[in-house]
Amino acid sequence: MTLTSFGPANRIKRSAETHPLTWRLRDDGEAVWLDEYQAKNGYAAARKAFAEMDQDGIVQTVKDAGLKGRGGAGFPTGVKWGLMPKDESINIRYLLCNADEMEPNTWKDRMLMEQLPHLLIEGMLISARALKTYRGYIFLRGEYTTAAKHLNRAVEEAKAAGLLGKNILGSGFDFELFVHTGAGRYICGEETALINSLEGRRANPRSKPPFPAAVGVWGKPTCVNNVETLCNVPAIIADGVDWYKSLARDGSEDMGTKLMGFSGKVKNPGLWELPFGVTARELFEDYAGGMRDGYKLKAWQPGGAGTGFLLPEHLDAQMYAGGIAKVGTRMGTGLAMAVDDSINMVSLLRNMEEFFARESCGFCTPCRDGLPWSVKLLRAIENGQGREGDIETLLGLVGFLGPGKTFCAHAPGAVEPLGSAIKYFRPEFEAGIAPGNVAPPLAKPIVVGA
């Protein structure tokens, strides 16, 4: 997946001053290996961090820069790092890179790993120094075979150059890094399910507390960060807090830049590094080129299948967490999907909910039973065999599976697009209700002990 450009994007030259994540990319889309990466100032930030900064200074710099997680949750990275124990007697700690990019319509981390593998390694090296972790793992989506090949080669190059392994840069600090490919489960994007899978266990989320910073991999303190998050660290260390904050547009509460994109029947589907605060309209019209001839924009999702649908009139929202929240949903991964006017929303939602139902770990009842129930109802409505009351039942499921009602955030993310689709396109759901087809009343609830 190469970066593409359209309209004003053609006139914007990527540079280290404005595009910290992507300025080193090659025009031919090939990977940037160690010699070229170092010629483009690669590992200069790591050398600065090792020579001029102590561990607490690195953590404070990342915290002051306002870096937030880029995997979808948006938790402040420096705050997360600060949760790691200060006790010097704890000499076994782990850093995990969450590269299990299973969110539909999202491919940003894939691009970074395939084309800039050393950027991720440098980000992990600096982060390991800050967190005093001696071993790191890149937990990679199993289907990303090219990324696995490139990361493994880059790890070997870094080892040979003394940038990984023992006594890195003569500092006395040791850090080993391993690429671990998963078996292809969406739930592994949840950090504790990822930890369980890495340990060889079933990929179920863990109860929190304790949080991974206290009890993580094999019971040891662990920090889990997303690929794009870690790739921001070198630029922050190299160029400073004030510069990093200046990258975002006025009005944005999120700092720096973000990999954003658009998929669907747009003229120029692709991925771009843009400042937080850019409007969705700029992303859609100036970069993605608007809809292809013969199609109209019906709806769009701002950041993956687990975010709510929005309408064309919402395109003036700014692309940052608070800006998207103002129009009723979440920023998510920042890679948007355009839904054209030929798509039936019931069919689209049935397809989405089938995916989410299949990817549930099955641990908690609302998710295990509620998502297949939604699929059953949606399939009936799609086939014109829906019953009166089915829409209300679907809306009830949206509430029952919402935030705080399930063990992890899988189910709330799964039903968010369902609730928004019914909100904006209810007539399409009503059209699938067969006249006179009334749902039977629910069975009398069983009272325990009666």
TrEMBL record:
Keyword Aminoacyl-tRNA synthetase: no
Cofactor (UniProt): [4Fe-4S] cluster; FMN
Catalytic activity entry: a quinone + NADH + 5 H(+)(in) = a quinol + NAD(+) + 4 H(+)(out)
Designated name of the protein: NADH-quinone oxidoreductase subunit F
Origin: domain of life: Bacteria
E.C. number: 7.1.1.-
Record has Nucleotide-binding as a keyword: no
Coiled coil: none
GO molecular function, one term: metal ion binding
Boundaries of every NADH-ubiquinone oxidoreductase 51kDa subunit iron-sulphur binding domain copy: 346-391
Biological role stated in the UniProt entry: NDH-1 shuttles electrons from NADH, via FMN and iron-sulfur (Fe-S) centers, to quinones in the respiratory chain.
Broad enzyme group: translocase
Assembly and binders: Composed of 13 different subunits. Subunits NuoCD, E, F, and G constitute the peripheral sector of the complex.
Assigned protein family: Belongs to the complex I 51 kDa subunit family.
Gene: nuoF
Swiss-Prot/TrEMBL keywords: 4Fe-4S, Flavoprotein, FMN, Iron, Iron-sulfur, Metal-binding, NAD, Oxidoreductase, Quinone, Translocase
Any single Pfam family the record assigns to this protein: NADH_4Fe-4S
